[in-house]
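Page 37, top half.
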Amino acid sequence: MIKVENVSFKYKNCDNFILDNLNFEIKEGEVVAIVGQNGSGKSTIGKIISGILKIKQGNVFIDELKIKDKEAQRRVGIVFQNPENQIIFNNIYDELSFSLKGLNKDEIENRIINSLRKVDMLDYKDRDLYTLSLGQKQRIMIAEVLAKKSKYIVLDEPTTMIDSQGKEKIYNIIKELKNEGYTIICITNLAEEILIADRTLILKNGKIVEEIKKEELINKVYKLQENEIKEPILLEILDKLGKNKIIFDMKDYTVNELVENLKRIIKI
């Protein structure tokens, strides 16, 4: 479990707190979306949870360990918006093995193979990163976190710079990782990523102002609108279907999956 208690934070040379007495919990095995307007502090939360930013007010616990504990920090991995900002080496194998120093050769090889397989990039193991698309590079960055065996994964706007095909691949990876028991915090400005999450936390003025469970999304879509969060197209579709007495449970539908279900219902 990740537990954030009474955390306040401001950057140097800044008078105002970007996070103000923040409190929330994330349970093991959850996918949680944190959404909010630009400048609301979403990315700051990710950096605090992963130990990149140090806090002076409040506490963050990772499985009851304080975040300043190196073991707590090892349990959390973070992937940023632009994968090119995280890349150190040109070669994929070198990139993944760099963070695995101290392990024997066989263990390093096994971890790299397993992590690349999880992101469907095993065939690229010996390739150079500069030959990959941005979406493929992002999948390598996720593989790097997996190779380190991070228990909790923070994805900081992971698909903002990626085309629609690349987004779909990463969404499928998130679903698979959830099925394997990983805990994922998805910091996002993209409405469609809300649909992947078990819960959505809305951040405003440095505080969590709303918590919406997946099964509540259709009935609480107005909460997104009130906080100027773009409504997922899929929710609009499901809402209109409901008004016409065609009811769908909230599942991990993509738009394409919804279309296929509709075809079966109306027998196209």
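Page 37, bottom half:
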Amino acid sequence: MWIDTHCHLDAAEFGGRSDDIARSAESKGVTAIVIPAIARDNFSDVAQLASGNANCTYALGIHPIFVPQADESDLAFLRETVAIAMSDPRFVAIGEIGLDFFVPGLNQSPLREKQEFFYSEQLKIARDFGLPVLLHVRRSQDVILKYLRRIDLPGGIAHAFNGSHQQASTFIDLGFRLGFGGAMTFPRALQIRRLAVDVPLESIVLETDAPDIPPAWMHKERNSPEQLPGIGEVLARLRSMTAEEVAGITSANAGDVMPRLKSLLS
């Protein structure tokens, strides 16, 4: 089986066909999809989508790109919503949260400080409920890690990882897995492909980030969780393994880092 650990299946780009796409992905062997929230407005959307599809689960969080429009009442609402969602077996993590120092303006005061505040507060919510986190890490690896050293968490996933080997090792030492997806399928993505070969396979999970980050064969097209097996096959070729071996190990990794997902699948 394949597990897509990061897919925005509720996105408007899917044109209202999210249920059909989830079923199509399942028919291709994608037995689990994790749908992270991005803002208070879509908490109910991701939960509803997960409840209607046997292979879908969800996470709750406020994405750093949506932090400028958020306020502290959204953090209180997140905490309240998480407390209720703990009774839902399809709720598996806090996410998507993190820091984005790439988008213009977000790395400048006062938005940088606001991003760090929202990130820290959401880490505390994850800690308080014993949940893993799905991290948005864009040109922010070292600051992300600084907070992870301060706040004790059960682990999580560094989504769309594109850091150094040293940063990868630090995430792994802190109990995190590294998410690899469509970017790895481009032959010129040398750094990502080296990481995909060099880090322990037990530290890798697969993702699509659909509708974004399409694989090489869908360059500039809308991505989909249906593409995950193809992404996994690229990883298998890079590591001189079979696709079945990669599917089994990366799926086990996803379950290990998200115990609620593992319970749902067992």
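Margin note: The beta strands are 2-4, 30-36, 56-60, 91-100, 133-138, 156-159, 176-180, 204-206.
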